[in-house]
Amino acid sequence: MASSSLKKSKNFIFYNLNLKSKFLIPDRTSAITNSLFHHRLLHSISSPPSPPVPKYASYSQLNSAIFELACLRRRLHSTTSVSNDISQLAVEPTSHQVLDFPGGKVKFTQKLIFTSNSTEERVHCYRVLDENGQPFTDIDSSLKISKELAVQMYTNMVTLEVMDTIFYESQRQGRISFYATTTGEEAINIASAAALDSKDFVFPQYREPGVLLWRGFTLQEFANQLFGNKYEYGKGRQMPIHYGSRKHNYITVASTVATQIPHAVGAAYSLKMENQDSCVITYFGDGGTSTADFHAAMNFAAVMEVPVIFFCRNNGWAISTPVDEQFRSDGVVVKGKAYGVPSIRIDGNDALAIYNAVNEARKMAIKEQTPVLIEALTYRAGHHTTSDDSTRYRSTDEIERWRGDQNPVKRFRKWIESKGWWNDVAESEYRSSIRKQVAQAIQVAERIEKPPVAEMFNDVYDIPPKNLKEQEVFVRKTVKKHTEDYPSDVPL
Ligand SMILES: Cc1ncc(C[n+]2csc(CCOP(=O)(O)OP(=O)(O)O)c2C)c(N)n1
Ligand SMILES: [Mg+2]
Known about the structure:
InterPro entries: Alpha-ketoacid_DH_E1_comp (IPR050771), DH_E1 (IPR001017), THDP-binding (IPR029061). By secondary structure, the chain is an alpha/beta fold. The protein has 16 helices and 11 strands. Bound molecules: thiamine diphosphate and magnesium ion. Magnesium ion (MG) binds at residues 285-287, 315, 317-318, 380.
């Protein structure tokens, strides 16, 4: 049964492939061929055809056929009329007739115009502070950021910077196994967190520890997790940087790219069902938008009208893959429009722009029960993780440029200094105090013993199955036999 319907749909695909490749040959794009094509296609949709199926002996032959089709499509773009502006298609009806179609009335046109793949005119980027930390306009009347909040945002960004430097070094010294910095993305972390309410749920990727820091996770809690000691909430079973906190509504990090996005949408849907006055925010990178999870989640959220903020940190790189090898669209913001999700592109290195955008997105999400997409343009100014050396695939000039003028922490500091809320003395006192606190947290975390071996086998099954019990016995035996190969601070 399944195989016969699979065969039918395969036939259908081959049939249309065949039709399309004929249609797409430039000398056949006359009006006659065109209307014939439509007639045949409509016919094929209304009554499944049983056409002669081209013979593809293998998947590689099928792939070549698809590739050929893609090439023909590209050629077509250079020979046929293409509109650069999608709105032009909407405003140029050449007929008074309309098609009453689900989703709204569609006007007809006799112009054969395809939407363009050109990204020449890009969606603009919302910014409040220029590179010298000065607002473009007089923002004070509209922006409600008090001195206290601004200083708190700034000091949290500095804490994040200091944490990153010291924890990164401790990995280099072999004291922890792994680390990922947020360098260059401090404003995204802190300013977005500042605009949320603590009852909003966070479904993070792995480059947003600043959101947890803002919510009150202590330096000691960060260090305990990184060292995997017995006070770590994952009981030593997680990778370092997989922070999570029930208290702070921060769902545990999973490094499997983008899996948090559909989870976030599900959680937001439950908030909607319970009429809660809160929303969900999920963070992900540009790389995350190349996954099926991102697209399924966006579509579900749009259709079910759930209060979720999709926060994309477009930092230019997914490990060594630059964004122009990741997608051909104008970044990520345009994908929101495709799914019917209100969307905005913002400067991810401008804390005030981020704060305003998330503040507004939160209000929209809750009041209008709608998803919102934010694409923050930024740059991953550090290596991907401690397992990476990014100078192997990008120039140091590029990195330095982003670490200089574009640095979000320096930019925000210029603004609060210009307001008279911060100065050099406060800066050096604060930095030195945080350095001491991080070093102290590391010393404490390092001395605390690891969770017992038994924890490896807990918390999944109510009654552990036979094979798991056997594995536990085997682990204990092996550790006892080779004590020199196992850490002495892990109780058996
Ligand atoms: C499902 C899955 N595929 C691949 C990987 C390997 N991987 C880890 S991080 C990463 C790149 C993610 O890039 P992006 O989403 O842009 O986030 P960024 O690291 O730039 O913040 C990849 C491919 C993974 N962890 N999970
Ligand atoms: Mg990225």
